[in-house]
């Protein structure tokens, strides 16, 4: 019995560590988490804001309009071998202070050892928080070096870059002139903890964001809630709803199974 208990504990620790190691996350709940600003912003250090994010904390930077385009530069935890993120999503929330004098440029850059991937998003962010989720494969229009005249990236090239990521840059400047850009909720997904877009097509949850009960458009069994570190939250759920009013504000993953036993995973935001 003692050996069985020890084995269970070891397996639990291994499984938890594997689960929590999947997604690389910055939610800026307490500080800037090592993100930097590169370009013509007033400082290479972002301003940390404890309130006003989506929800809670976020980072922002002022643009001096001195020339060039400034970008958010990801910290070391997002870099290195990210091969397991191939085919998964890179998601983030952006906001800007003005919609005047907008311009286009590279919106996401992933720099590898020999190649750089560039992506142009369809729309610039609004004054309110705008969520983006981009696929790390050829389902997105990734280009080599530049989104306009660069060659279309192949899956093999995307995998090559992800095998040794040196930099991840997200554009923060969209106005030809002084402005403020803001960033929140950066998530680099990997195997086993990706937030499936197909899940959102099968089952809708509402309201989302919420500060209380959240309802499911279809009945779900074995519903569980995880934080972005992969830790399971102990909550009792019904077939068509769950109450998350006691959870701290933040982003969570709701998991469950539909009538066909298909695994459903949906991002859930608690205000």
From TrEMBL:
Residues 1-21 form the signal peptide. Keywords: Disulfide bond, Glycoprotein, Repeat, Signal. InterPro entries: Laminin_IV, Secre_tail. It comes from the Bacteria. Coiled coil: none annotated. Residues 30-235 form the Laminin IV type A domain. NCBIfam families: Por_Secre_tail. This is Por secretion system C-terminal sorting domain-containing protein. It comes from Moheibacter sediminis.
């Amino acid at each position: 019995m003692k050996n069985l208990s020890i084995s269970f504990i070891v397996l639990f620790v291994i499984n938890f560590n594997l689960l929590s190691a999947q997604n690389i996350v910055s939610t800026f709940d307490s500080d800037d988490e090592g993100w930097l600003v590169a370009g013509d912003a007033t400082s290479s250090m972002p301003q940390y804001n404890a309130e006003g994010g989506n929800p809670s904390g976020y980072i922002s930077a002022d643009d001096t309009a001195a020339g060039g385009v400034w970008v958010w530069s990801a910290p070391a935890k997002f870099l290195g071998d990210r091969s397991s993120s191939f085919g998964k999503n890179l998601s983030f929330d952006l906001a800007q202070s003005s919609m005047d004098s907008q311009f286009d440029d590279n919106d996401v850059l992933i720099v590898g050892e020999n190649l750089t991937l560039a992506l142009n998003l369809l729309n610039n962010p609004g004054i309110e928080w705008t969520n983006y989720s981009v696929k790390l494969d050829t389902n997105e229009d990734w280009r080599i070096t530049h989104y306009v005249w660069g060659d279309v990236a192949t899956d093999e090239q995307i995998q090559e870059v992800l095998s040794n990521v040196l930099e991840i840059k997200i554009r923060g400047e969209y106005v030809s002139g002084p402005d403020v850009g803001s960033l929140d909720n950066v998530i680099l997904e990997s195997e086993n903890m990706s937030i499936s877009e197909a899940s959102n097509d099968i089952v809708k949850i509402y309201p989302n964001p919420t500060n209380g009960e959240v309802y499911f458009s279809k009945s779900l069994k074995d519903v569980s809630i995880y934080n972005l570190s992969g830790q399971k939250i102990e909550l009792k759920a019904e077939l068509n709803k769950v109450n998350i009013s006691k959870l701290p504000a933040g982003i969570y993953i709701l998991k469950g199974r539909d009538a066909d036993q298909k695994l459903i995973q949906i991002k859930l935001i608690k205000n």
